[in-house]
Amino acid sequence: MKREFASLEPFEALHVGIFIEERNARIYENFAHIFAEFRDAESEAIACAFREMAAEERRHGSTLQQRYVERFGTRSCSLTDQDIADLVEVPELTDGEMFILGRIPPEKALEVALGAERQARRFYLRLTELTRDPLLRSLYQEFAEFERDHEEFIEQKLAERRPAREGG
Amino acid sequence: MPPESNLQPPPGRWGSVLAWVVVLAATVFTIAAALLYEHSRTAERRVIEIRAQAPEKGNFYPQRIELAAGERVRLRVRNIDTVGHGFALPALNVGIAEIKPGEVADFDITVPDEGSEYEFFCTVWCSEDHMRMRGQLVVLPAQARR
Amino acid sequence: MFRTDRLFGVIPLAWRLELTGYPIVRQLLKSRWMPFLLLVFNLFVFTVILLATFIGGVGAGNYNFGIMIIWILWWVVLMMILVPGLARFWCTMCPLPLFGEWLQRLTLVGVRHDEKKGNLFIGFKKRWPKSLSNMWVMNFLFLGTTFFSAFFTTRPVGTFILLFSIIILSIVLSVIYHKRTFCLYVCPVSGFQALYSNFAMTEVRVKDPTICQAHKTKGCVVGNASGYGCPWLLLPYKFTRNTYCGMCFECFKTCEYDNMALNLRPPGTDLLVDENRHLDEAYKAFIMLGIAVTFFMSMQGPWGFLKDWVNMATLPGYFAFIALHAAWCLAVIPAIFLVFVWWAHRRAGPSEVSLKKSYINFSYTLVPLGLAAWVAFSWGIILPNGSYILHILSDPFAWGWNLLGTAHVPWTPVFTGLMPWLEIVTMVAGLLFALDFAYKLAVQTYREPAAAGRAAFPMMLCLTLATAGLTWLFIG
Predict the structure, then answer these.
(1) Which of A114, C197, C372, C449 is most open to solvent, judged by the fewest CB atoms within 10 Å of its CB?
(2) Domain spans of chain C?
(3) pTM for this entry
(4) ipTM value of the model?
């Protein structure tokens, strides 16, 4: 049964944040690898962008992990984003699908990434409203800003591709 | 009388020599070539293998790695589990989003001259005890280098 | 009623295409480099396998070269292509007994021959006990190895222990016993190849038996300067079944009259050869069918507790698995089959044929069905897991290599949506063959067509029910 945001304990909320960052890093890393395999200039540029985003998500995840350990030790937790009500599920292409599809449309990958970023930002914004701990609230606010930057970046990339598609 | 021209003579001396060469190539030379190739890839750096499993199955092994300051090593993280794991050592700016089951990931690092302990941890949610999947890289004085 | 000399009433079972009628094929089989070069290639592959499994330690099985090549690629190719198509062609190129044979002969590719003493061997050259000159040892050995299937097939060190043990055993037996005794009566892989090769579409036979009758020296048996007498201790001039022929092609090298032939033929031909049929082969059929069911249920089925039992998660569970698995293969399946044979025997009416003879004869209907079950099981192995092979070809020792650039190819199930249909088609094909041979075997056993027809019905019902059960198991 899914949990409401307000019912999350602080360690649970932070744990889900870690999960989201690590998941996003993995998605972007996979996309970077796939696009790099196509070996053309445009794909390499997209791969490079995804690699940077993956690195940033990894840093976010590491930061959150360190906060978690500092505050809560190595306490076990099984919650992930799928256990939270009204968090939109991020459609994730499996490795196999990506491999079989071969040349996946860049728009598809960017849309998946955008979905992931929007979910993450929405999550942090909700936590900012609900968290009483000032240090954690400040951290969530900061991360919401990061995710907004990512969102804008991806939206810009998508917008750039739309005129090209309509013209072609 | 049977037509003996139907029978083919077996390979002579050179045929036997060739047979020995082929067999040795298939066995001894193959093993030697594999080991030599791997040695050439890792000659400059000592390889430290870290096995990754979910905490309840064994965690990182070894969980505590002691290296001399300034030493150049290759950390080889091998996922021997059936789920994905990640690896991050933020202090040395190394990490990877995911190492799939059975795969390995190599990180070439130079152990810092300062600091005492650096933490590494898993970066893929692998179990309820994911947060326990961490280890320490301990920096020893440079004289301790092997 | 139905033509018993034609497969499905259409294809003459006596049809043959002699592949050695093509000069290049004959020259290839007469050369001592064949199968030597095939053997050495496989020796190379097995060297990599042994190294990978030895140093692979307890790593995840999926990305281990040994696990992938043996239990995914080799097993699937064996069941789907080699055995049904080429009989015991794997034995032609199997490297496991190679060291033992080289030790016996003290030569790799040549022939040590003395004009007076004939072919020269070292070792004690003892004869295998006559009472064990059948499939019973192989039956129990193969069944025994399946008790440790989880260990052997998922842990690299398990595969290493299995292969290394077989190699050592073959060397020891080669020193003690004559020629390919190990392959004939001990090798776990040999048993099911022996039985299922009766269904195969290839055979080694003499071209003209009258030549052999007149020929006194029989180079194919005693050997000569060009080759060794049959290493499988057979009489090539009297081959009537594929069962014990290891397709080493020595007889092609030693026959002074070029009277041996490699033929293409309709599948299942040897199932009707009523010679040397005994209970050991019937039990091999039961055991193979039983193992197919157990393996599917534990490896591809949804029952987690079975996986735990097979994986030795708990000792009581593991012992329960061994007991149930052994009982299933050795008692339950034979008993169910006996019920149907008894029914068939009664329906046939008064006959001089014993129930035991009927039981053994009808057990050969399980050859096409059992083979179909293994092919269906193999779809479930290769389609989901085949993509791992690309990875391990590039990084065979999991040292971070990327020899062919495919080390990072992700796991990709292929056509798994088609799997149920492939399994259904496979099982239906196996059933059709089994039904056809059920009638033919009934005629062969009871002679009189009406009696045969009455007897065939229960057997056909048994085969149909078994197929339905297996298909339900496979497709869920």
Answers:
(1) C449
(2) 1-476
(3) 0.82
(4) 0.87
